Amino acid sequence: MNARLLSAKIISRVLKEGQSLTAALDQMLPEVMTPQDKAFVQAICYGVIRQFYPLEFLLNQLVTKPIKDNEVKVLALMGIYQLAYMRVKEHAAVSETVAALPRKKIWAKALINAVLRNYQRQQEQLQARLDSEPMLAAGHPKWLIALIEQDWPEQADKIFLENNRQAPMVLRVNQARLTRGQYLQKLTDCAINAAEFTVAPAALVLEHPVPVDQLPGFGEGLVSVQDAAAQLAVGLLGVDAGHRVLDVCAAPGGKTAHLLETQPELAELVALDCDAARMQRVEENMVRLGLKATLLVGDAARPDSWWDGKPFDRILVDAPCSGLGVIRRHPDIKLLRKPDDMAKLVELQASILNAIWPLLMPGGVLVYATCSIHKQENEFQMAKFLKEHDDALEFTIEPLWGIQASVGRQILTGESGMDGFYYARLRKQ
Fold it and tell me: What sign has the CA pseudo-torsion 345, 347, 349, 355?
């Protein structure tokens, strides 16, 4: 299939069917044969979704009435994106986008051609008009702009900017197998430039992303892909040999694996998730890395259906959340997340915390983590939990990163190149 038409179909699945961009790419990318086409499809899909609101504004300035056909509209957005953001020759951006229209939509060729030609002629004026609309330039839906500005009034503009940038590719070196320095040398030998993260002892950030099959030793389990902020969980949990550890909402298993790489002599690590398909990914990661854990499919809010009655020394609650801290990696969050979702997520998080807390033994430590920057999911959630549980005490996190919150610490998107993350650490009396 034509790469541009395939891209339009993938983007349409996100816009019209509400499918995640990751899922749509996973399902449809196998149709792409060459690595170059695959890279193009990924770049244009992520780019159009990331810049959807500014692109839609520009398109609306170029048509006399809205384009009702979703696939035709997406192709128009793709054409504008190529002209505005990509290093595609202008004549190719126009002609190849027009040519990507399927035969049954031949009627739209003149329309797409006119839209893109007019954009070329009016580009400077249109950009000036866009720049004069701060909410559009922010590239987020209005409700999300209001939420972020309410929580982070001084940092909001930087958050919007960081959300609209491509996230760096960050690796986690399997330190049970080799040191970070040794793996950095392997990258250097392969002409892959990378640098160390100060706050995450296993993390390396690549100068330019590469396919995982180009990473030396990836298939043998020497390294995994995981943002540095996500790697901080293991240090906060403080696992020792002989500990029994529970990883709640564990899929896709990055933190599970990191725990085992850091402390191979755990008595047991139980990884729990409610999604059987996602737990399959955890199992695949365990096999690739040569690690073993007890993998359970179950509802975290109903431990009676899966817990064996033995308490845990450490519990990691990687709570289901809005994902507002990882928009730069998953730009479709801006389109798929709805205002009504927020209260439901906060309620779900509270139900999981309340159900899991009794599984922690006295003196044990629970780490609560989200990849969100929303205070209701984070510090307010923790403050409420502490108020309702007399046997829970905050276990202070050293200020090596993030912002001190009323409870826990918050990393805002882009801080030291990291994703937006929240952590709180509790000790049971």
Answer: negative
